[in-house]
Design a protein that fits this description.
heterodimer; A: alpha+beta; 7-stranded antiparallel β-sheet; 4-stranded antiparallel β-sheet; 8 helices; 12 strands; B: mainly alpha; two-stranded antiparallel sheet; 20 helices; 59% helix; disordered N terminus; disordered C terminus; membrane (chain B); Cytochrome bc1 complex cytochrome b subunit (chain B); Cyt_b/b6_N (chain B); Cytb/b6-like_sf (chain B); Di-haem_cyt_TM (chain B)
């Protein structure tokens, strides 16, 4: 690869056309001569540097005192205001900063201005010596020989088998870290209990919602009736059952076959848990009827049954079938017809079970 | 090691410190260690400080973290807050969140410690990453330091693990949403994903176990592994001795710098206090993670503009960039009755997988391409290894595109542009960015090398214009002194190694591939200037001018 090995423009008259080892190289001139600093030659400058270092250490002492004063003199009291906390935090920080920076800059200044700054050269040693290597190989060979493992394959093979199996209990013992998933992800609190349909209630206070309260263009954050009264696993249930309730002009909704009865007068309810990785789809753009997930910007179109129109989600948000009960409150006529939230391995199987 | 020599009664130390040292030494034999390390030479350069910053941040993390453990309670049991932060009084929350609030508002210095801890954590991962970039771009990973590069890479992963486990502990709304995303990613894993999720969270998300489990990982397992890796890392630094930048007097057989005692130890030791001081200033004036603004975790609300800590950003950004239904095709597929969530799996695993695989294996890739199995203790200036530098920049650009994507919504609101357009542009940059980065960097590096040749051969521009007797105007170039010139010419410039037959006289396909890569690496290299070229350059008629410069001129 000779001719353009020098890489420089052709007219520069360079000569490096042979392999680089044959080209004469510049000689290493050695470590540059040491240059004296001001403090090395001028005793006054040295004295000045000495005083500067001492001053920096003095500043550190002041910093420590600031910290102690801020710690003991500022009383947080029983209901400390943000302003007090902020003041104490700032003073503790300034105190620590002065204390540390005083010591640090003092030492570094001391080292740079006053300590000898001659660069020295040290030889590197070989990382290993051939003599050591040979001795080590001999030792290993002797050890292997004395165990007799090569002559007794029965011992070797049974040992290998035993060692290979021994970690299994260590893996198995983590089996109780959690319960089996079974079909827990497939069901939510919305399923009617003892034939009674669950009402849609406001998040977080749990008051039921009348269909007449839902005006066109409005949106409600919804939780199932009875969620707040749960003693255990409240967040687990909430993480699956939160719903967004919106009312549109019924003519802009285009329900697909089988879903005609899932809404009421343009009121529709969709799962709030994103089908991407499970963030709450909390942003509703009233004008465009888009739902936006603030975590990864998946966008769902309400007028197309929450089909994904942008972003990383691949599935539409599950719809909750709703109706109105005798007193005019909104109720869920059944659970979701598919598992809510992010996809998982068994999801399709669960969906088929729900709908069969 | 010197135990037998204590029989000699002759030595009496003169100072108190000397007597104390002698006391210890005669019992544990420390003089050997002091003799080895007391004057050990360390090269000095500002870019060597990133590793120190990482080490010191870790020490500060241990100190501040220990304080926090005394007050933090990692329980997810429900409680009603009754501390002194008024807006949250009576609100239902977990004990973990409540105790984090107490640390912030009811324990003097608690907020300061939380702030120091969080800032130090961010700085720790950042300094590890920048340190690795320094090591990569200067070729410090080459033999004999490949294993230490691997240990460093493991440290980067551990640092991120430590950061993420700690970030989730306060059980606030922001970190809870972070866990929710992790849960979604885990569930996308084929076959075992659902089980892993249930085992990790002790049941359905969020459950009541995750915080205490992360706590054990965060304060025991991960820091212990980090500590072990740091010990290994520093142990190998001692064995290998530090690398040094090229320059006069420096070669692969020596190490030029300052002795450990006193100068280097003072500078490095003082630097610890400086890092601590800077972190204290940041903790004093810049709020980080104000959990009291977020509220306790609740699966229903989320605030717009949510951001993970910076080091998780590139994975989050990749998740955002992946289209779920490109051109109407569903990325999530149901095959054989099971769900393959490629719209989550691919962005969560592939970019990070590629980055880390290339990172771990790069020393061996380059060694294979260059057939260079020698020890290297003198660093490369990045420009003198143009292809490596370009590869590094390409990877860095790729990372940065993903990282920027994690803030796509903030970019859109801040610059008043459409969120969708930001995403489309970043999707394009995801593929084009690294290529542009590679080409531009390689050209810049080659141009800098040519500039170096030019300066080495023709001297530096002085800005002084001289009129020659026959009327020609020229700019005077001042020749470099030999030390400065050696810095510009004293480097190795590997060349293309064509495919070579093996012992059977066969050129294998693998060898052909290696030769192809070798050509790709080095075909347009710029060779360092040689004395002969310098001689030739002086033949151009500069002598008259240079002679006028008097004593500065070099004689040949």
């Amino acid at each position: 690869m000779g001719n353009h090995s020098d890489g420089s423009p052709n007219h520069s008259g360079t000569v490096a056309t042979a392999g680089q080892n044959e080209v004469e190289k510049f000689q290493d001139p050695g470590i540059p001569p040491h240059r004296l600093r001001l403090a090395d030659t001028d005793p006054k400058a040295a004295k000045r540097a000495e005083r500067q270092v001492a001053l920096l250490f003095g500043i550190s002492v002041v910093g420590t005192l600031i910290f102690l004063v801020a710690y003991f003199a500022i009383d947080l009291g029983n209901d400390s205001s943000i302003a007090t906390i902020r003041l104490q935090n700032a003073l503790l920080g300034i105190g620590t900063a002065f204390a540390m920076l005083g010591i640090g800059t003092g030492i570094v200044h001391w080292a740079k201005a006053l300590m000898p700054d001659h660069e020295v050269s040290e030889e590197r040693h070989a990382i290993r010596y051939e003599e050591d290597r040979q001795a080590a190989v001999r030792i290993v060979d002797d050890i292997v020989e004395e165990t007799g493992i090569k002559r007794r394959p029965l011992i070797r093979n049974t040992l290998l088998g035993a060692v290979a199996l021994a970690p299994l209990p260590a893996v198995a013992i983590f089996g109780d870290l959690g319960p089996r998933p079974d079909d827990k992800l497939a069901h939510t609190m919305w399923a009617p209990q003892d034939g009674k349909l669950k009402r849609l209630t406001r998040d977080p206070d749990g008051t039921p919602i009348k269909a007449s309260d839902v005006t066109i263009g409005s949106a409600f954050h919804v939780i199932p009736e009875g969620l707040n009264e749960l003693q255990e696993g409240k967040l687990n249930e909430k993480a699956k059952s939160v719903v967004l309730l919106m009312r549109l002009d019924p003519s802009s909704l285009h329900p697909s076959k089988g879903r005609e009865q899932w809404g009421y007068n343009g009121i529709v309810a969709y799962s709030k848990i994103c089908t991407h990785v499970g963030c709450p789809v909390a942003l509703y753009e009233q004008q465009t009827h888009h739902l936006l997930c603030p975590c990864h910007q998946s966008t769902f179109d309400l007028t197309q049954e929450c089909k994904v129109i942008f972003g990383p989600a691949s599935r539409p948000l599950p719809q909750l079938p709703i109706a109105v009960d005798d007193e005019g409150y909104l109720v869920a006529t059944s659970d979701f017809h598919e598992p809510v939230g992010p996809s998982y391995w068994e999801r399709d199987e669960h969906e088929r079970n729900i709908n069969s | 090691m010197s135990a037998t020599s204590t029989a000699e009664p002759a030595f009496v130390a003169k100072t108190k410190a000397g007597r104390f040292t002698d006391f210890v030494d005669s019992r544990v034999g420390g003089s050997g260690i002091l003799r080895e390390f007391g004057r050990k030479v360390f090269p000095d350069h500002w870019s060597f400080m990133f590793g120190e910053v990482a080490l010191y941040s870790f020490v500060i993390l241990l100190l501040s973290g220990t304080f926090l453990t005394f007050f933090f309670d990692p329980s997810m049991a429900e409680t009603h807050y009754d501390g002194s932060y008024t807006p949250l009084k009576g609100v239902e929350m977990s004990v973990a969140y409540s105790s984090s609030l107490n640390i912030s508002f009811d324990i003097r210095g608690g907020l300061f410690m939380r702030q120091v801890h969080h800032w130090a954590a961010l700085l720790f991962v950042a300094s590890v990453a920048v340190h690795m970039l320094r090591v990569f771009f200067t070729g410090a990973f080459r033999r004999p330091r490949e294993m230490n590069w691997v240990v460093g890479s493991v440290l980067l992963i551990l640092a991120m693990a430590a950061g993420f486990t700690g970030y989730s502990l306060p059980d606030d709304l922001l970190s809870g949403n972070g866990l929710r995303i992790i849960d979604g990613v885990i569930k996308s894993i084929p076959v075992i994903g659902t089980y892993i999720s249930f085992f990790l969270f002790g049941g359905e998300f969020p459950g009541t176990a995750i915080i205490s489990r992360l706590y054990t990982l965060h304060i025991l397992l991960v820091p212990a592994m980090i500590l072990l890796m740091i010990v290994l890392h520093l142990f190998m630094v001692v064995i290998h001795k530090h690398t040094q930048y090229p320059g006069p007097g420096r070669n692969d057989n020596n190490v030029v710098g300052y002795p450990l005692g006193p100068v280097y130890a003072a500078k490095a030791g003082g630097f610890f206090f400086i890092v601590f001081g800077v972190l204290a200033l940041m903790a004093a004036f810049f709020t980080i993670n104000p959990i009291w603004n977020y509220g306790p975790y609740d699966p229903s609300p989320v605030s717009a503009g949510t951001q993970p800590d910076w080091y998780i950003g590139f994975v989050d950004g990749a998740l955002r960039l992946m289209p779920g239904n490109p051109f109407g095709w569903h990325v999530e597929q149901v095959w054989f009755g099971h769900v393959f969530t490629f719209n989550v799996l691919l962005p969560a695993l592939v970019p990070a997988g590629i980055l880390f695989t290339v990172m771990f294996t790069y020393p061996w890739i380059e060694r294979w391409v260059t057939k260079d199995d020698r020890e290297h203790h003198v660093l490369d200036r990045p420009r003198n290894a143009p292809t490596r530098t370009a590869i590094g920049v390409a990877g860095f650009v790729w990372y940065c595109v993903m990282w920027a994507a994690a803030g796509s919504d903030l970019i859109a609101t801040h610059f008043h542009v459409s969120l969708n357009d930001v995403t489309y542009w970043l999707r394009a940059l995801f593929f084009i960015g690294p290529i542009i980065g590679f080409i531009v960097t390689k050209r810049v590096a080659l141009a800098l090398q040519r500039k170096d040749r030019e300066i080495a051969l023709h001297g530096r521009e002085t800005g002084r214009i001289v009129r020659l007797p026959h009327g020609e105007f020229i700019e005077v170039h001042a020749p470099l002194d030999e030390y400065k010139r050696y810095k510009l010419v004293g480097f190795e410039s590997p060349q293309v190694i064509p495919a070579q037959p093996n012992e059977h006289g066969v050129v294998t396909r693998k060898e052909k591939r290696r030769a192809f890569l070798s050509r790709w690496f080095f075909e347009d290299r710029v060779a360092p200037a040689t004395p002969a070229e310098l001689e030739a350059a002086h033949g151009h008629g500069h002598e008259a001018v240079e002679a006028a410069e008097g004593s500065k001129s070099l004689t040949h």
